[in-house]
Amino acid sequence: MKLVFRHGTMPSLPLVFLAVILHSANESKGQELFVCRSPAIADIVILLDESSSVGVINFRVVRSFLELFITAFLVGSDKTRVGLVQYGTKPRIAWHLNALSTKEAVISAIRELKYKGGNTRTGLALTYILEKCFTVESGARPAVPKVGIFITDGVSEDDVLLPARRLRDAGVEMFAIGVKNADENELNVIASDPPQSHVYNIPDFKMLSTIVESLTRTVCDRVEQQDRTIQGSSVTSPSTAQSISTNDTTTMMTESTAVTTGTEKHSSESEASTMLSTQSSVMVTTGFSTTTQGSTIAFEADRVTMAELLKDSNTSKAFDGELEIHLVNNTEYIEVGESFIVTCVLRNSFPIADIHIRMYFNGREYDVKLQRTLEEVSATATLVQPPSLNELIACTANMKSLSKYTQRSVVGYKLPKPVIKMPNYAHVGEPVMVKCEVNDSDTADVVLRMLIPKLNINETKAAGVPFEKTFNATKSHNNMEITCVTELGTTAVKKDKRMSLTVFYEPSVSLNNSASIMQISHGGDISIHCIADGSPAPEVTWNYKKEPNVQIVSATILNIKTATSMNNGVYECQANNKHGNATKRFTLEVTSTSYWLILVIVCAILPIILIVLAIYCIYKRKQKRGSYNVRPDGTVIPNGRLEEIPLALEQKQSLQNGELS
Predict the structure, then answer these.
(1) Which residue range is the domain that position 640 belongs to?
(2) Cα→Cα distances 214→141, 190, 220, 376, Å
(3) Alpha-carbon distance 406 to 396, whole Å?
(4) How far is CA 524 from CA 149, 438, 546, 551, 572, in A?
(5) DSSP code for 73
(6) How far apart are CA 427 and CA 577, in angstroms?
(7) What is the C-alpha radius of gyration for the chain, rounded to an integer number of angstroms?
(8) Nearest alpha carbon to residue 377 among 418, 343, 330
(9) Residue ranges in the chain modelled with pLDDT below 70
(10) Residue 458 shares a structural domain with residue 544
(11) Nearest residue to 454 (alpha-carbon basis) of 486, 496, 426, 483
């Protein structure tokens, strides 16, 4: 088929409007809107993540993206069919492949999609589309390429490896689109090979529009290649098969002219596996071929599935899977009276719908919950361990006249619980006695162990003899854990009892700065941490000079921003509990920047001043004690200068007598 608008056909107005917008957008970029022109048709199922991480706004962007994607294909009941599933915590069907028969209806349904939210359980959703969407009842068609488009923005909370493999094995070609926080490794696991053409990982929902053309081209090409493979997988004559219906049964007559190669058989088997989830009979019509041995083979339609036809006409060869018994807790040791879950599983056996499993334990048959998937049948039951210690779990699987049997033993045990006797509280210096014991007379093969790591105690003895330890409580014993364990012989089965000791003591306080006087320059910042210890934990309070730039953070930290002289003073941190209190003080001094500058200048100039004063004093002293010239008339001339110094009569007399120097 050609995936284009046919001449003479008038699409609906919303579709025309969308096409005009898209054409204008692409024309502005110098591009033509891509339309898939391949005559091949496909069954496309879109799996859309609607978990809480997506959000309403991004969900609208995804809807617009899906409109662009669908526009590239010709949709119809006899053309490409489209189904859609939304998932979060659980998957939910939006519409099946056979629900909408026109492109306009699909685009309208996309616009009406509602956002729900939830978790991201991708593995469950992948299984859902395989078992609920790619089925005949839901509109999937034999010999038509199957395509899955997966869109998510996160990481799955469950396993995706097996569901993804089952989808690919069923012939579904998967494309994975990851946005934002999607895990690329997980996308590679889900998508078909090669990842270069099947995985798209973009950082934001707004960029979805940038991958539309690449995705539509790739899907178009892959559908065409799948179609050529399917059409060329069988070479049959025009009268290859004839379907004959009666009121009771439907038989399929296959003539010996059918030719099937190994590769073709694998392709047909993949298609048939896609239909198995219906677990009902199918009638094989023209276009489906099987290898025969030169004779006509008749099958009852209500007893035979496609998988049986493809495997072998001999039922016993299809019933070759291994029957296994699984315990949920994965241990064979079960305590008497305890319930435990058991599952019997049969894999790789067909037809699934004809297989029945029964479970037996402690001499009776238990009711089981049967579950069937494409690959296995499982039966689950909740059992209770009886007083008898050793029992067998038996499972049987039956299909027609064939049966399988397997068994697994479980070991019942009785293990008493340990008991700890000790005080919950103690004060520093008080003696503490710890006692571990078992209050049960049946202690055969039971070992008692005491563990006190802080005291380096790890001792074991027979459970009939109790442990007793006494020690004096110290601060280091606060919140100390004591464990008593009972163990059953050499097995890994054990039970434990744990208690902790609280040691009370009065508080103590320290600061992150041990100085009693703390200095900070004007305009600087300081942070003081009050470190308090005590049991119970003490309450910390601050006593300080309240200023706007002083803040208390988390009760234990005092911060001062842009300190000024107003912050000078005594600060006090106090810790209190019911056993006492402790206090730590410090004095804060805020030094002015100008004061320090003056002090530096004074310290620099003072030596110079002292030197000048010393020189001046020396000069004066010499001037006072200098030499004098005396004339005969008694005139004195100091230091050789010409000025005359008048002397009194007494001074002249003394000078003459040599007393004045």
Answers:
(1) 626-661
(2) 26, 19, 10, 38
(3) 7
(4) 63, 65, 17, 15, 20
(5) S
(6) 14
(7) 48
(8) 343
(9) 1-33, 233-318, 490-491, 593-597, 623-648, 651-661
(10) no
(11) 483
